């Protein structure tokens, strides 16, 4: 038995064991499925979800360098400011 025959048998066995057909061993790489990132949380989402807002604010304060490039940090800071302003205005008797 020659080396090339052994290699051919090994490839055929692996292809059958994994369920890939002969087309899998072509010149192109098999495609991979990328994970879809979760949707970005908006200012209004953070206003409606106060515990998550507090957690995100704490995370952003703990890593201010990373917060500069994280859109959710900006959204959380904006939501926090809007909530604070609304509470301040409510304390003054404004709507």
List keywords for this structure.
single chain, 95 residues, elongated, disordered N terminus
How would you explain this protein's 3D organization?
- The chain is mostly helical and 95 residues long.
- The protein has a domain at 43-91.
- It is built from five helices and no strands.
- The protein has helices at residues 3-18, 43-48, 50-62, 64-67, 71-91.
- Helix 3 (50-62) crosses helix 5 (71-91).
- The protein is elongated.
- It starts with a helix and ends with a helix.
- The relative contact order is 0.09.
What structural category arises from helix and sheet content? mainly alpha
Strand content: under 5%
Molecular shape: elongated
Share of helical residues: 55-70%
User: Mean pLDDT, nearest integer?
Assistant: 80
As a whole number of angstroms, the C-alpha radius of gyration is 28 Å
Q: Write the element-wise H/E pattern from the N-terminal end onward.
A: HHHHH
Q: How far is the first residue's CA from the last residue's CA?
A: 88 Å
Uncertain segments are 1-17
Largest sheet: none
Q: What is the number of E strands?
A: 0
Number of distinct helices: 5
